[in-house]
Amino acid sequence: MSKKVAILTSGGDAPGMNACIRAIVLVCERSGFDVLGYLHGYNGLLKQQYRELDARQMHNLTQRGGTILHSARCLEFKTDESARLAAANLDELGVTTLFVIGGDGSFRGAQHLGNFWDGQIIGLPGTIDNDIVGTDATIGYFTAIETAVQSVDKVRDTADAFERVFLVEVMGRHAGFLGLNGALASASDYVILPELFENEEKTLKDILTQLNERRDQRGNVSYIIILAENLWPGGIADLVSKLEQRTETEVRPVILGHVQRGGSPVSQDRLLAMKLGAHAATLIGKPITGIMVGEQNGQAVEVPLPLTWEHSKPLDDLSVNTMTLLMNNRYA
Amino acid sequence: MSKKVAILTSGGDAPGMNACIRAIVLVCERSGFDVLGYLHGYNGLLKQQYRELDARQMHNLTQRGGTILHSARCLEFKTDESARLAAANLDELGVTTLFVIGGDGSFRGAQHLGNFWDGQIIGLPGTIDNDIVGTDATIGYFTAIETAVQSVDKVRDTADAFERVFLVEVMGRHAGFLGLNGALASASDYVILPELFENEEKTLKDILTQLNERRDQRGNVSYIIILAENLWPGGIADLVSKLEQRTETEVRPVILGHVQRGGSPVSQDRLLAMKLGAHAATLIGKPITGIMVGEQNGQAVEVPLPLTWEHSKPLDDLSVNTMTLLMNNRYA
Amino acid sequence: MSKKVAILTSGGDAPGMNACIRAIVLVCERSGFDVLGYLHGYNGLLKQQYRELDARQMHNLTQRGGTILHSARCLEFKTDESARLAAANLDELGVTTLFVIGGDGSFRGAQHLGNFWDGQIIGLPGTIDNDIVGTDATIGYFTAIETAVQSVDKVRDTADAFERVFLVEVMGRHAGFLGLNGALASASDYVILPELFENEEKTLKDILTQLNERRDQRGNVSYIIILAENLWPGGIADLVSKLEQRTETEVRPVILGHVQRGGSPVSQDRLLAMKLGAHAATLIGKPITGIMVGEQNGQAVEVPLPLTWEHSKPLDDLSVNTMTLLMNNRYA
Amino acid sequence: MSKKVAILTSGGDAPGMNACIRAIVLVCERSGFDVLGYLHGYNGLLKQQYRELDARQMHNLTQRGGTILHSARCLEFKTDESARLAAANLDELGVTTLFVIGGDGSFRGAQHLGNFWDGQIIGLPGTIDNDIVGTDATIGYFTAIETAVQSVDKVRDTADAFERVFLVEVMGRHAGFLGLNGALASASDYVILPELFENEEKTLKDILTQLNERRDQRGNVSYIIILAENLWPGGIADLVSKLEQRTETEVRPVILGHVQRGGSPVSQDRLLAMKLGAHAATLIGKPITGIMVGEQNGQAVEVPLPLTWEHSKPLDDLSVNTMTLLMNNRYA
């Protein structure tokens, strides 16, 4: 009898989710498993909305952003009733393994479902935020950095032409990975991150000191500040106005927004998605469940789902040290 | 005796300004003219800040965004005193031809200067807005469309994944070229342009009608609206909130902002910049001044400066017809 | 009774063909016409292989390279027998208008079919070569320039690092449009085009003169030559070896090849494809047939098919003049 | 007294070399060291050709491909006489630390110099091939993958349109990293790598088997094969002709060539270059020499130079396993 497995994508979409779906489907097809894809995240699981997936449909999919299974929030999935309904739906179709591609909210949903369902549950880290413990990187993170960096590269053209201060807001609500690496790779001058933020006054003073010393040395210069979203108390407009007052310069805000979520995945996201997806599909039927497949030091690893969110993931020392040496100081 | 010519870039920077500078310098060098570049737009002309330009420095410049001569606003250039000072500065250096690369404000400055200076003044249309009469396109316009379109391509990934409404604000204060072509080329669903805007209520109704019919036919769908900046009375936040009320759907705003000004120029901007720049440099010493060099129907043309701003440039019929057939209606 | 129309793509694929298909389908759907797409060019017409096309399938298609209808050569379509079979097949399905998207070979096929079929035939110029008379540009041409230029931008990094001579072969069998504009926009140093090629010896001498003068002035320099394919008598390897002998320098060849055909269409190709496709669809049922829809000076035009291939399309003067001023000479 | 350090780039250029130079210079400037850059690799060291480097020149450099210090081969550097001359030149200028950015040939040169010079020698891995032991990745490798993958994405458009077989040759003379990851990330169908190549006959049979099964299942399909350069005994033309004979299909070759070396570095290369460069600059004056700074598992490490070339670097298991699951088999 052929085994049946299901996939869903949940939470914010991330470039590479489709490459991950493809990897799972290809490995399943060679192993003789049927695959179906639930639509709209957990909503499809509750409403029994799905489509069958086969290798043929996976052609030309790797390079596409977004997710062909669609995603959506599903607040009601927190209830026991919902989880029971989902379990019944999975059983009705004969699904024995469920792959959940998403972030920490999606993994909490998966863990909750595991309390009511006997099938195998395997998570795959898909989020641009890289805020999942247990994997060095998450699917979509590399593309989001690239998009942010290419945007800042463009902003720099105008910043240089006008020798102006720009403030660029990047995504990363609770985690500074995207901000830190986006700022470094774009050779920005200053970065304001949740992990390193002390208070408004100190930040403003730091910026002022650096900017003034730079101007003393080199005359008028462009100056680019990266700001993680939702971090500055009064919002980006408040920071713009405070900087304008203190620098007596025009400061222009740029909010990268949802552009950062989309786009054809860069190679590193495609590769991560394929490695994790293919490995995850080889776990079907093994006595392991309630885990996320991640990559650590070049190896595929299995991590119990709760470990992925119990602690917050720290910025890596090497990147922080590099930032300290190259940014946020007058020598940059 | 060798002739001396000067170049300045003024107004908002636009991709391709450097390619235009290079073309002028290369042709001047082969003709035996010396070239200097004033810095920071008209400010450099007032402060006699300039650098010498030669072919060697032009290497590897074509593909760079921004302007190596820097740009800046110069409000005081409107006075007669400033224009007289500029004329004296030009004469002091022996400059006999001045090239001004910029938009309509820059051309007004050039015309004003012409009232006080006997030298030859040649304008080149450099602005992402394409709002200059007398040339089919302006330097920087093609790149700005490309940047907007690539951003919307990315936004669509998320819009499709979540079947959500997105509202994307593009530049183009008074002219809808960037909005119209950006919306068409990105296969957006609706566009709100200064040239075609009647009132808020009509626009909202149009959108609602189209969106509802689309949903009736196809179920939930993504829906992308392009909005020209500074057009909607209450700003983009007001439109978001009105759309959310009426559609009972989440509507996400994306403001492309200054990212649209920068970036390596696409080929069509490089080519336009080179054609206009090279042609302009062949006019040195000819009895023609106070003109802009533009491209019309594949030919280089010379247009008196005042004609470039006296009337506003209309959207072309073919694009508007195409929009009518493909967008802003329920069949899109 | 609902009218039925058909589309096919033929000849080399070109970026923007899908955007053109979409435009035709959207306009047809709003006009109440059914649309089918023949597969594999004229082969599908002979074998009655087709798929139905509707607006829903057109979603997310604009930005995709290639053609969803596939393309192929079809040598046997030259026979009368084939054209009669095609006519019978079209009649069998009740097709009254056929759109052919392709190059001059495809248009000859369309014209041939017209001798045997009473239906309406409308051609759309889809080829990266831009070698179709009656339209300022062809669908796919702008993207091919962009791809060539971005490749040369990359080659220049190495050329500059090693101060080396590179020879880059671009497509454009009989027409130099891609070569000329690719060379200009990439700020290459020399270009060898079918329209301007005299003989090997003259070309070699020109290059040597320019290169030596450049070296005298600036010391070792990088030097990039663009070569149109199939032009140099002994092939690119022969030119490399002759240049190495005469320059006593390493010369590296780069053959861009099929990479130039693919890729997401740039905005200008999307826009051209949409304008022509939408306009073409408004011609359905009008007493006009055997024509190509093109764009001239910003207007949609209808051109009898034979006029598109009877004469070869000349390079435009402005581009050639710009080349003369900026390239192929020692001042570049 | 201020310390003086020197940098050179040697061997094939790689995207990110400039970002690495910038990182070293910024850290040196804050530490009060003077920095000079030797030109043209070891040739500049022999001819005492160099330029002074300061933070100001580093502006806007991170995103540029190639190397501002130029590179070149230097065969004569193998002699003792050359190394002695280089040592004398370094001493003459008072250089106490030399940074060498390059591949294994450059590191052998550095090691050789160390036999004749008492100063500190620090290598940084800059090569697109990733064939350096002691670091997880090399500077330039990520960009080269991206370039290869984007090229294959474009080739696929034509391959799909014509349902044709394409053979794409990528760089990587002795190491399959670029081929393996380029093939995986581009969702190619088959890859021929030095590490896994057995013989011609087996490879041809494998391809034929997979291609025929694919055609049996799905009808005509596109099929993309990645080939590492210099691997197939008779060259790519021989493989094309053998495949055409056996598949009775047209097979088109694409040689990516030098395009792979250039281009603005992707974020991962910029980040790696900055981390390694900044860390290397903190080692100045420490009692450690004759080492390469690499990154392993997210940490900066110092590896004795001979260890970087004594053994060949194996492909990582996870990538090879993923390849086995997703490519080179009939289920792909």
Automatic annotation (TrEMBL), chains A, B, C, D:
EC number of this enzyme: 2.7.1.11
Record pathway: Carbohydrate degradation; glycolysis; D-glyceraldehyde 3-phosphate and glycerone phosphate from D-glucose: step 3/4
Co-factor requirement: Mg(2+)
Any one GO MF annotation of this record: monosaccharide binding
Biological processes annotated in GO: canonical glycolysis; fructose 1,6-bisphosphate metabolic process; fructose 6-phosphate metabolic process
GO CC annotations on file: 6-phosphofructokinase complex
Catalytic activity: beta-D-fructose 6-phosphate + ATP = beta-D-fructose 1,6-bisphosphate + ADP + H(+)
Cellular location(s): Cytoplasm
Keyword annotations from UniProtKB, A to Z: Allosteric enzyme, ATP-binding, Cytoplasm, Glycolysis, Kinase, Magnesium, Metal-binding, Nucleotide-binding, Transferase
Phosphofructokinase domain residues: 4-283
Entries under NCBIfam families matching the protein: PRK03202.1
Family, per entry: Belongs to the phosphofructokinase type A (PFKA) family.
Protein name: 6-phosphofructokinase
